[in-house]
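Box 3.1. Reading complex inputs
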Amino acid sequence: MRPIIEVRDLSKTYASGTHALSGVTLDIAGGEILALLGPNGAGKTTFISITCGLVTPTGGSVSVDGHDIVRDYRAARSLIGLVPQEITLEFFETVMNTVRFSRGLFGKAPDDAYLETVLRALALWDKRDAKLRELSGGMKRRVLIAKALAHGPRILFLDEPTAGVDVNLRREMWEVVRGLKKQGVTIILTTHYLEEAEEMADRVGIIDKGRLLLVRDKTELMHEFGQKILTVELTDPVAALPAPLAGLGLDLGADGRTVRFRYDTHADRSGIARLLAEFSGHGLAVRDLSTEQTSLEEVFLRLVRDMA
Amino acid sequence: MNARSILTIFNFEMARFWRTPWESLAAPVVSTVLYFVVFGAAIGSRIQSVEEISYGAFIVPGLIILTVLQQSLSNAANAIFMRKFVGTIYEILCAPVSFLEVVAGFVGAAALKSVIIAIVIYLTALFFVDLPLAHPVLALLLLVLTSFGFALWGFLIGIWAKDWQQLQFIPMMVITPLVFLGGAFYSTSMLPPFWAAVAKLNPVLYLVSGFRWTFFGLADVPLAASVLALAIFLALGFLAVWAIFRTGWRLRA
């Protein structure tokens, strides 16, 4: 199946000389959620802005469902909805009027029944006659999503949808995104929060300094780059680990009972068997074992560090 | 051509006009009536009639043009500048509309607002003076074209301006002086020959003169010159809009 978005060698150098993007090539499949991760100024917003028509690329191309975003901008843009990073609204308008405007702007016939389903899904229907300035920050953000969905796009760009948003609202936003995915909408979101990418995305792309370092299936990425931590709980506390064990890179907790061992899931030998053998050899009785996966955050920091 | 998008922008802007009638309609009418009372009634009674037209009636076309120029410029400039300033312009830039369609929506609405204000001023003036209107169709045509032309330039100012000061600069420092010196309150026949010649370098004089001709059948410059001036003015505006359309200047990075 043809990707819904094809990005080829995309570059952007701003008039100031800043290289915001360099040679980004990427395919995005219809119906997936792709999370773009990267520090501030990595080029995430520039990528979105080019695809949506806010910024003109200096090199390369983007096509949306086969339509070039520059030559065939009408067809390309009509498939896309954009939720910008900043809350920018006409504060004296009502919710209903502003979504009607968004729909009309995209050349779609008025359809209040459709807009009602959008507003209901975003829990905004009761507020349809409220002025935008009267709404809470979370509601304003949902209004931006409603505006982006007003013309029934097949692709939704969410530029840092949960930046500066409290935990409850963030969960709420995730629910909204999951609901859209169920309807077959392709979603590209940028985020600082690795937790968010981990929670939401099918694939994760990592951008730094204008370059797309990698795009990988999320579970694959975590597996590939992931380390695991084995925590061993001892039956009896010890003051220090026996000398031969010190070379294995173990951390003894302050309580003298918990020992943490970091290992690579991809090494031929994880070292666990040897560790446990050494433990029993030195008369250390093990009460319990547990392992945990490293988070995407650690994966990300390692990757950016390694590629720098 | 995407008529629905144009109409959406147009209706949205017009809705703003009707929602704030005191600001958009009453304010320009009140200020015109004040000009009228001061220049027409208070001072005008001491001024002899101009070419057999009472001074009060003589200044009406000039007052209308003065208001139309200011309103067209500021309405169109503010509409697009506010969107740039607040950030809501993103929505227009990522919509499947061409720049020319965006211009049509904004400029069309700003021009219609001016035409409505002009008609209200005209009707108000009828309460004060005896006002003939010799060529009503031509008057309306010139009014519409002038409104549209200045709304176009206002839109360009709104795109060009990076801050509030720049937004105010051209309407305040260029257009208002040109209008006051453009024969809104006097005929060049009242000036010494040298200053009459200087006044004819002012493009606004041609607009005022042509519009006044449609009322009284008399003008400072030939009607053809007025029409030509208006045509040049419109053509330059379209050219500038086309250039921005091609380059995305100050809109797309």
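In summary: Chain B has a mean pLDDT of 88.
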